[in-house]
Fold:
Amino acid sequence: MVSKEVEKLLLKVQKPGRYVGGELNEVIKDKKKVDCRFAFCFPDTYEVGMSHLGMKILYSLMNTVPYIWCERVFAPWVDMEEEMINTIFRFMRLKAEIPCPILTLSVSLFSMNSALQICSICSGFRVCRLKAVTEKNLKT
Structure:
């Protein structure tokens, strides 16, 4: 079940099903019983990421560990990206409480299949309002 705010946001995008979760073989764990929650970020849309065999294998393997909860995150399509930048929402995870800032998770891992996907990762950083770690800002 999505909140009224998210419902309004989903009415503005072409394919809202990309963002609501509830897919086959989704793993949902009790937050109180896991020590590490992390986001497996795929720098492409839901449709591309869900058909990626490597992601399916890693997602299922990680979730076999009782104290780890691996969650999937996909790059939003351009219509949702603009809505996310213009609202309070950040990366919407595929499941659990939607929306939830990706920054509340323990670890975020990005899968990159080609150099072309660096643009999607940078876009994700922009949506989340993250800044890249550089040598300069490590010294300050």
